[in-house]
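> call design_seq(struct)
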């Protein structure tokens, strides 16, 4: 299975990475919860929940290159080292295709945003994003 190709590594290794690709919004009603619940199904909960989102860091075992799957103010995205962008794009696309074929896991995280507290996750395989306005 393709998931064995991508190994989760310490998020500290993501230092110095930046946006490479935004994740196509496949579930406009729950873009963060959809992304999170698919990542969670394969790799477990995020180790770091930050302001406006979360981050997972991966190493591609075929190339040794690192990339991130994260959600921030601009929504779900993938990052990496700028100088490796061209090499990372096909790797990220393969990873994204793997996620698309993954069933959402029941999960939830809570984080702060400019608009209030956000709860994102999935219940009964149905992703959701809920803002609790302050």
């Amino acid at each position: 299975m393709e998931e064995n190709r991508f190994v989760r590594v310490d998020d500290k290794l993501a230092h110095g990475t930046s946006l490479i690709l935004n994740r196509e919004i496949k579930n406009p009603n729950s873009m963060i919860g959809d992304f999170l619940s698919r990542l969670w199904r394969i790799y477990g909960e995020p180790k770091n929940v930050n302001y406006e989102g979360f981050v997972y860091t991966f190493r591609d075992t075929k190339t040794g290159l690192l990339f991130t799957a994260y959600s921030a103010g601009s929504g779900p995205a993938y990052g990496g080292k700028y100088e490796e962008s061209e090499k990372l794009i096909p790797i990220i696309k393969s990873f994204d295709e793997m996620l698309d074929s993954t069933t959402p896991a029941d999960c939830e995280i809570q984080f702060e945003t400019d608009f209030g507290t956000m709860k994102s996750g999935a219940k009964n395989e149905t992703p959701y994003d809920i803002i609790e306005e302050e």
